[in-house]
Design brief:
Length: about 290
């Protein structure tokens, strides 16, 4: 948390452009629950990777890697520094480490299978994903559907394919990881949940559903949104909604912290995000310059 504010502060110290590596901020119309940068934060530096697709559309890590590589090349050509901001680990891995070679999947069979998987309840879809891919570790409906799809259409588990050597991208990363003590993080999550709900998160989701977006659309599977969808379906009382969102966010933050502790490949500066954004930005810049020298 606080990555966007630190990036805005960093823009005051160096000529940067920001590439968002957030798998939820790519969706148009999902603004409150994804905590997209404010107008002032977007004015601090040019942004890439926001509002790319409809929430009804899937957007893969591979697509992000290809798009981001293009944005970064453009930023370099303008003599500015690309700064990738965001916590979606698979996006970062795809961008900096490359992707496995996916076997060809027959388009017509893929469409028919997606329709079948979309009709399954979430718990049933997860059970099928685990049955088809022993390496499946969870992560939501979209990942479960993807694991089942690849296993059934290719005959090989997705986890096995992902473990194969990837194509290098030639983009060497340097990481700055912002962390918080557990109690501080829990308090910030609770406050952020309160602000999102007060800002109109429920109405944001209701408006999208009224406009025809399916309740299980890819964009609505993210934190906050899936809980609100459950609430609007009558399966989660309003009084329990804040606690449900906060609990899901805490669980995600724990998984995310584990990923960043064990999966990053490259030099990393770890900072306490309790400090002011301006101080953190100065530490990030000093650390980067020292590593580059």
């Amino acid at each position: 948390m606080g990555k966007t504010r630190v990036a805005a502060a960093l823009a005051a110290l160096a000529p940067i452009e920001i590439v968002s590596a957030d798998s939820r901020q790519i969706y148009r119309g999902l603004d409150i629950g994804t905590a997209k940068p404010s107008a002032a934060e977007r004015a601090a530096a040019p942004y890439h990777g926001l509002d790319l697709v409809s929430p009804a559309e899937r957007y893969s890590a591979g697509r992000f890697a290809a798009d981001a590589a293009g944005w970064i090349a453009g930023i370099d050509s303008r003599g500015r520094q690309p700064v990738v901001v965001g916590g979606t680990g698979f996006y970062l891995r795809a961008l900096f480490e490359g992707l496995f070679e996916e076997p060809p999947l027959e388009p017509e069979r893929r469409l028919r299978l997606r329709a079948v998987l979309a009709a399954l309840p979430g718990d049933a879809l997860t059970r099928w994903a685990r049955r088809l891919d022993a390496g499946f570790r969870g992560g939501g409906r979209q990942r479960a559907s993807r694991a089942a799809e690849v296993a059934l259409l290719s005959g090989r588990p997705l986890s096995e394919l992902q473990a194969a050597p990837a194509r290098p991208t030639g983009l060497p990363p340097w990481y700055a990881v912002l962390g918080l003590p557990r109690e501080t993080l829990a308090a910030r999550i609770q406050e952020r949940t309160r602000r999102m709900l007060e800002a109109g998160l429920v109405q944001e989701v209701r408006s999208l559903l009224v406009a025809g977006l399916a309740p299980d659309a890819p964009g609505l599977t993210g934190l906050g949104y899936r809980e609100v969808v459950t609430h609007l379906a009558g399966d989660l009382p309003a009084a329990e909604l804040p606690a449900a969102i906060a609990a899901a966010t805490r669980h995600y933050a724990k998984r995310q912290d584990t990923w960043f502790r064990h999966q990053l490949k490259g030099p990393a500066l770890r900072l306490d995000a309790s400090a002011e954004p301006e101080a953190l930005a100065r530490e990030v810049l000093a650390g980067y310059r020292a590593a580059a020298s």
